[in-house]
Amino acid sequence: MNTSRRDRWAALESPEAVEAAATRLRQMGDTASEARARECWLDLLAAGAGERILDVGAGLGDMTVVIARQVGSDGVVHALDLSAGLLHRARDLVRESGVSDRVATEVGDARRLPYGDGRFDAVFCRWLLLHVSDPARVVAEMRRVVRPGGRVLLVEADWETLAVYPGDPATTREIVQANVDRQVDGRIGRRLVPLLRSAGLQDVTVTPLVGLDLAGEWLPFLRSRVDVAAEAGLPDHDLARWWEAVVSAADRGDYMMSFTQYGASGTVPDGPEAVHFGRRVTEPR
Ligand SMILES: C[S@@+](CC[C@H](N)C(=O)[O-])C[C@H]1O[C@@H](n2cnc3c(N)ncnc32)[C@H](O)[C@@H]1O
C-alpha cells in the first residue's frame, strides 16, 4: 500500500486546511460516544476549582471549554496549539461558552512549551501524540511545566482497534491498516503508559474506553477512511462494494463500529529525584 506517515496536523494555516481539519474534528466530536468520552476524561482529569490547567494541542477548544467549567471562575485554562487558525475557532467557542474570563489561548509548539517549570496543576492532551514524531519529548515538556504532585493526562486512540461490521473482512483489514499507516503513530494508544513512565511520572494508570456506534453517527468518519484507503492505492471497486455494504446495513440497523481509546495519567513526583541507570527514581522523603 502506498501510505506516508507524515504529520498532516502540523502547521495548519490556510483557511482550506483549517476548515478541513475542523470538519474532521467535528465528525468525531459531535457523536454520542464522544460526549460520553468527554465525561470520562473530565472525571480522570479531576480538575479542582481554582486550578491552572494546560490543554496541549487544543484544536477547536472543545475540551478547553469543559475543563474551564470544571476549574470555575477562580481557575485558569491555557489552550496551546500550533495552528493559529484552529485557535481562532477555539477562541470563538470559548467566548460563546461564556468562559473567556478564565481561558488564555497561545500559539505554540508542544515540543517547546512556552511556559516556565511547574506552572500548572495539570496538563491535558487529547489526540495530539499520534501526530508528532517525538512523543517522548512532548511528554517530557508536559512533565516539566507541571508542579510536583500535579498530573498529566494523555488521551489517544489505538486505530488498530477499529472494528466495523459488515463489509468484506479483507477490505476492512486494508482500510484499518491504511488509517493506521496514515498517522505518524496510529497505534500510540498502547504506548501511553511507557511514555508516562519514561518521563518519570508516578502512579501511572490507564483507562480504556470503547467508542461504539450503532446509529451511523460515525459514517462520515468511516467515509473519510475509505478515501484514505483509496489514496493508499486500494482498488476502487473493492472500496465501493465495502462502503455499499456498510451503508445499507446502517440503513437496516445492522451495522456496528467500535474503536478503543485510552486515557493514561500520571503524577509528577514531589520528592527529590535521582537518576539510576538512565531511569528517574524518586527518593523516599
Ligand atoms: C487531532 S487534533 C486534536 C485537537 C484537540 N486536542 C481535540 O482533542 O479535539 C490535533 C491538534 O494538535 C495540533 N498540533 C499538531 N502538532 C502540534 C505541535 N507540535 N504543537 C502543538 N499543537 C500541535 C494541531 O494543530 C491540532 O489542533
CATH class of the domain at 15-157 and 185-212 and 261-269: Alpha Beta
Secondary structure class reads alpha/beta
What are the secondary-structure elements, in order, as H or E? HHEHEHEEHEHHEHHEEE
What is the residue-averaged pLDDT?
93
Low-confidence stretches: 274-278, 281-285
Bound molecules: S-adenosylmethionine
What does this structure look like?
Helix 8 (219-231) packs antiparallel against helix 9. With 285 residues, the chain is α/β, with parallel strands linked by helices. It is 40% helix and 26% strand. It is built from nine helices and nine strands. Strand 2, helix 4 and strand 3 (103-107) form a beta-alpha-beta unit. It has helices at residues 15-29, 32-45, 62-71, 84-96, 135-145, 169-182, 192-198, 219-231, 236-252; strands at 52-56, 76-81, 103-107, 120-126, 146-165, 202-213, 256-267, 273-276, 279-282. The strands form two sheets. It has a seven-stranded mixed β-sheet. It has a two-stranded antiparallel sheet with strand order 8-9. Bound molecules: S-adenosylmethionine (SAM).
How do the helices and strands line up, and which of them pair or pack?
Layout: H1 15-29, H2 32-45, E1 52-56, H3 62-71, E2 76-81, H4 84-96, E3 103-107, E4 120-126, H5 135-145, E5 146-165, H6 169-182, H7 192-198, E6 202-213, H8 219-231, H9 236-252, E7 256-267, E8 273-276, E9 279-282
Parallel strand pairs: 1-2, 1-4, 2-3, 4-5
Antiparallel strand pairs: 5-7, 6-7, 8-9
Bound molecules: S-adenosylmethionine (SAM).
